[in-house]
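User: Okay, second chain of the day. Same drill as before: sequence in, structure tokens out.
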Amino acid sequence: MNINWKTKSFIFLLIDLFKIYKLLYFIQKYITKKSIIEIHCLNPKWITHQNNLSALPSPKIIEFGAGKNLAQNIYLSQFAESQLLVDIRSMLDISLVNNSFNQLSKICTNLKYHELRNTDELFKFLKITYKAPFNLVNNTLEENSFDACISTDTLEHIPLNELKSIFQAMKRILKPNGLISAIVDYTDHYSYSDSSIGKLNFLQFDDNSFRKYNHSSHYQNRLRHYDYLSLFNDLGYELLTCKYENSAMLPEVISNQFNKLDPSITATQGTFLLKNIK
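Assistant: Same drill. Structure tokens below.
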């Protein structure tokens, strides 16, 4: 189903106004079927996290924004002691999780499929705990309780002030020298459903102009690679590795609020490995 970005923006506005998030999940699962994934091979992003955390033997991991099917976490369960997954609202769908688990068990010999009847069985078979709704900023998690944090295609959906608060909270709950492996999607997400616009289409708008398309149910902060570098540096994380890749064409007009001279302005994805310095 190909929906242009203005139509999709209007749909998200309606969802925003009436808070009908369950309807959005229903549409994605049963109409557009974007929630149902087919796994034929390992996702390179999973391998990135695995490699980034390879120095930690059997780490305790926390992730925020894990999504519905948990395919990434099921894969990483082979290498982690445990995983805590948190979301601002409950998004997990146990049927989608079973679908991912079953497919991955045919690819990964270390994974033995068990049909999960409820979220409690996530821990029994995969050492995964899911908590939602969960406020990562004002939380009761113990200090120094996790070895690592992972994040995949989530940071771009969080306003800058909230990102600062989340990464400040993460400094408390991660152990000294704990690691953060983060992958950020820098593209205009409306381009996924509207092939007529470019991957960086939203860079032509200033914040005031983009606000009418930028609804909380599909919020995009439009931060660039250099913004994340500044954020992590200001909060005192040590940057172990970072890169940007998959450069795209810029729109003809770019808002003055973006740094047109920075070479990373054309990036469509960024990856970071951070060390928690206390």
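The first strand starts at residue 60 and ends at 64.

User: Thanks, on to the next one.
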